[in-house]
Write a structure and sequence with these properties.
Length: 569
């Protein structure tokens, strides 16, 4: 059989949330990519069913946050049983947008629906998912990678020549195996069954149910308004060491054992068994092959971090691949992908492992702690909010990594705008280089229409924010305009510069510089800009560099160490 050879910039293997997020990001940047998946059809399993706030911010940037919110649920009602009695009946309405955080809520929607939203966006960008296409070989050299893909229907092989291959093909990643990247870890002793089933007899008011008792864990979460639920349960071996596999009969019995024999489970569309594993690869990259999502790290589903961490992997990697492909950076930029994301994955593994032990361990000491301490503590709003904030991924950052730079020169500008001691202290406590750049409400410098910093960030560019501070002078505006011009000359269309003015009037003589107004000083407060300050925000929404005052040379020196600038500093 003849082997066909084709070319692309990036071959993405695996069309789950991680691979689809990466493909959407690459396609909107004009990067040619192909997405292949060995599955013959798109699945309809609920699997990872929650989008965390930071993932919604990624979806905002990709233009699909609204679609995800419309399809999901942000108002949660939880009935939690412990030791055979109703221990908690919590109504958790959606929290309104908070200062700097436009999406504060966990959105519950089945994973198949999340993937559908991403596929629709990919299609709008001119991309598609090639189903029934299995990767069977990888051969890379100094100039690229050749992936051999076989069509599951015809058996026809195709050699796809790509500059890079990204494996987002799950915990049993074929890309990882073929590349020889090791994954090390251990499995939990607990075994779980889960499935998507229809349930009659439980309230159709959107409530979730969970039971923690000596017989193990059981939970049921509504997936939509049609009576379909995701059911999860822990199972223990019998006297002979045998484990029951997932079935409607097993789930029906588990409900009856907890006093809910009146409910009827039927029409299962998915049943599965698993033992949580905690493992991570020893490297995220082997030459021109990179790993993302579950292909690089797997862990307990406790805390709802797996899918979301994979989405963040893709968002971190997309703009870096683009910069290398366009010749704006060398391959060393791709080393920062592992540098930034591996510590995040290790932290997620640790936290999800602790959460798993706290809620699922059958050990008597953990059972006592869960029933007597953890469950009662959930009655306190401060505890619930702390738990939700802890898994929201808004605090994930890259401080101290190669791409994070800061400069506080203390340079006196000579026009009354230099930072004083108090201003400098406040600035030090603002968003640091490597932190997530917060949102803020501002107004257009043209017509005064309300807008947000996230609106300025949205797209494939970096964003330069030049904060004027309260001591506004013509000399200060001229200097900031000159800084904006120098950075734009060095980065071209890769950066958009904005002067943030504390007030409701656009200053004169700034015709060639974009301006936003900050009448309530919300943006100045979020960025601790009590005096003239500069923030450069990366394409993925993290602070790449900040300085006080807003001078060009320090940021250009920092960028020049990693990127190929259009003009000399």
């Amino acid at each position: 059989m003849t082997t066909v050879t084709t070319d692309t910039d990036v071959l993405v293997v695996g069309a789950g949330p991680t691979g689809l997020t990466l493909a959407c990001d690459l396609r909107r940047r004009g990067v040619d990519c192909r997405v292949v998946d060995r599955a013959a059809t798109h699945h309809t399993r609920s699997r990872g069913k929650g989008l965390q706030p930071r993932s919604l911010e990624v979806f905002d940037d990709l233009g699909i946050a609204g679609a995800a919110l419309a399809a999901g649920r942000t108002h949660h009602h939880v009935r939690l049983y412990s030791g055979g009695r109703l221990a908690l009946d919590l109504d958790l309405p959606a929290r309104p947008p908070q200062p700097g955080v436009p999406y504060p809520n966990l959105v519950v929607l089945p994973q198949w629906r999340t993937e559908q939203v991403l596929r629709d966006r990919l299609a709008a960008l001119g991309g598609t998912v090639e189903l029934g296409r299995e990767l069977v070989g990888i051969d890379q050299d100094a100039d690229g990678v050749t992936g051999t893909v076989v069509d599951s229907t015809t058996g026809a092989p195709e050699e796809i020549r790509a500059a890079f291959v990204v494996g987002s093909d799950g915990g049993s990643s074929r890309v990882r195996t073929l590349t020889g990247i090791a994954m090390r870890g251990a499995s939990h002793e607990e075994h779980f069954v889960l499935g998507d089933v229809r349930i009659e007899g439980l309230p159709a008011d959107g409530s979730s149910f969970a039971w923690f008792d000596d017989d193990g864990y059981l939970a049921a979460d509504p997936l939509d308004g049609s009576g379909t639920w995701q059911v999860q349960a822990s199972v223990r071996p019998d006297a002979s060491g045998n484990l029951e596999t997932a079935s409607l009969e097993l789930f029906q019995r588990l409900f009856a054992e907890r006093g809910f024999g009146h409910v009827r489970l039927h029409d299962a569309t998915w049943l599965s068994d698993f033992s949580p594993r905690v493992a991570i690869v020893d490297r995220y990259r082997a030459g021109r092959v990179l790993l993302a999502g579950d292909a690089a790290h797997v862990h307990s589903p406790a805390g709802g971090q797996g899918m979301n961490t994979g989405i963040q992997d893709a968002y971190n990697l997309g703009w870096k691949l683009d910069a290398v492909l366009r010749g704006r950076a060398g391959h060393a930029l791709l080393d920062t992908y592992q540098e930034e994301r591996m510590p995040v994955a290790r932290a997620v593994l640790t936290s999800s492992d602790l959460g798993h032990s706290a809620f699922f361990s059958p050990h008597p000491a953990m059972t006592f702690l869960r029933n007597r301490v953890l469950v009662p503590a959930l009655r306190l709003a401060v505890v619930r909010n702390r738990l939700l904030d802890g898994v929201a991924e808004l605090r994930v950052g890259y401080r101290g990594c190669s791409l994070a730079g800061e400069a506080a020169t203390g340079e006196h500008t000579g026009d009354g705008e230099a930072a004083g001691v108090v201003d400098a202290v406040r600035f030090r406590h603002g968003p640091r280089a490597g932190d997530r750049a917060p949102d803020a409400e501002v107004r257009s410098g043209g017509n005064g229409a309300p807008t947000r910093l996230f609106d300025l960030f949205r797209g494939t560019h970096s964003t330069l924010l030049l904060f004027d501070g309260p001591a506004a002078t013509d000399a200060g505006y001229r200097r900031m305009a000159a800084t904006a011009r120098r950075v734009r000359a060095a980065l071209g269309d890769d950066v958009r510069a904005w002067i943030v003015v504390p007030g409701d009037r656009r200053p004169e003589h700034l015709d060639d510089v974009d301006v936003v107004l900050d009448p309530d000083r919300d943006a100045h407060q979020r960025y601790a800009a009590a005096a003239e300050s500069l923030y450069l925000v990366r394409p993925d929404g993290y602070v790449a560099f900040r300085s006080q005052p807003a001078t060009a040379q320090p940021v250009l020196d920092h960028l020049g160490s990693m990127f190929r600038l259009y003009a000399p500093a």
